[in-house]
Amino acid sequence: xxxxxxxxxxxxxxxxxxxxxxxxxxxxxxxxxxxxxxxxxxxxxxxxxxxxxxxxxxxxxxxxxxxxxxxxxxxxxxxxxxxxxxxxxxxxxxxxxxxxxxxxxxxxxxxxxxxxxxxxxxxxxxxxxxxxxxxxxxxxxxxxxxxxxxxxxxxxxxxxxxxxxxxxxxxxxxxxxxxxxxxxxxxxxxxxxxxxxxxxxxxxxxxxxxxxxxxxxxxxxxxxxxxxxxxxxxxxxxxxxxxxxxxxxxxxxxxxxxxxxxxxxxxxxxxxxxxxxxxxxxxxxxxxxxxxxxxxxxxxxxxxxx
Length: 306
Hints:
Blueprint: H1 2-58, E1 69-70, E2 77-78, H2 81-112, H3 115-126, H4 133-151, H5 160-170, H6 172-184, H7 188-196, H8 201-212, H9 214-229, H10 233-238, H11 256-264, H12 272-302
Antiparallel strand pairs: 1-2
């Protein structure tokens, strides 16, 4: 009998050791899985820095701020201001569309719609985020541009306006969803107090809910801007590939992402032109990184706990 008890205790002890070992292994495994995204980010940054350094060794840094971009000529020039201007113009047009519509939709979903209606409308709005961007690009080129050409004289078949408008429609779900989440997090006691003082629902929304949720709302704007800056297929199809420095949105313009798509779609040998892709990618990465850091700063600085 005593031998049986001892054998049972030994088996239990072995099982306990196995259990303890698995408990120690689980955090290590989870840490390795979580580190994949960090290692990927580090790899991307190192790739951009190493390959962009080849470009900056051959091209003076001041040249990238010139307005002449001709990477394939016999005497190439690498002024990236036309690309930066194109990116700025299309992103600005997109935000002019996305911010008012997205914020208004968020106000309605959070403050005016019934729960049953919200459950139907919010998924319908978020469906826009699931449409492939290349579909948006063809929609801008084949439908929006011909429609705008009937309204705006002199509008080019490829232009920044139609690309910016469709980009704005694409990022509406981002603004709406994040803003609505921030507004829904505001305690009902604040709304009830304002209503008890005689405020209308619109006044409560504009003067109580939005100020209380401003950190989340502004963060959604900043994240939407960074999404617009990094958009590729819409601008590649609808905005054109003209490398002239202009702010006229009726003309074709090329963005930084459009330049990368155009250059990589051909047979480009290793050289300064090839490494210019990484220089543009590094500038684009810097812009989006700044926008995301700004969003995090705003969220932390103006976040209110309830």
